[in-house]
Amino acid sequence: MELSCHCGGVTITLPHAPDEIIRCNCSVCRKTGFLALRYPENSVAVAGKVDGYVRNDMSDEPPCLTLWHCPSCGVVTHWTLLDEWPYDDMERPDRMGVNGRLLDPELAKSLPVREVDGASA
């Protein structure tokens, strides 16, 4: 399954259709409109030029992920965890998030939505 940003400059190939959409209420997801589709990070192929924003706005927590977007149209495409995992007490998860807003709207409407309270985490 192939997804793309608005201008088509970034394409994302998924290993299979998503099972669900995750709607997080953290400030980044709320303000960008990001809806997560989670996959093992090595199962997704990203092609095209992307610019990243390392989320480092949480004063009590070290940065742990990069939010990627297309430099041409500005659409947020996916996030990846940092290679240097900052948490000694937790193993680095094998996952990345793809923006569910890139899905065909009919497919997106057919998927269950799981609410995640990222604002309190």
UniProtKB/TrEMBL annotation:
<dbReference type="Pfam" id="PF04828">
    <property type="entry name" value="GFA"/>
</dbReference>
<dbReference type="InterPro" id="IPR006913">
    <property type="entry name" value="CENP-V/GFA"/>
</dbReference>
<dbReference type="InterPro" id="IPR052355">
    <property type="entry name" value="CENP-V-like"/>
</dbReference>
<feature type="domain" description="CENP-V/GFA">
    <location>
        <begin position="1"/>
        <end position="121"/>
    </location>
</feature>
<protein>
    <submittedName>
        <fullName>GFA family protein</fullName>
    </submittedName>
</protein>
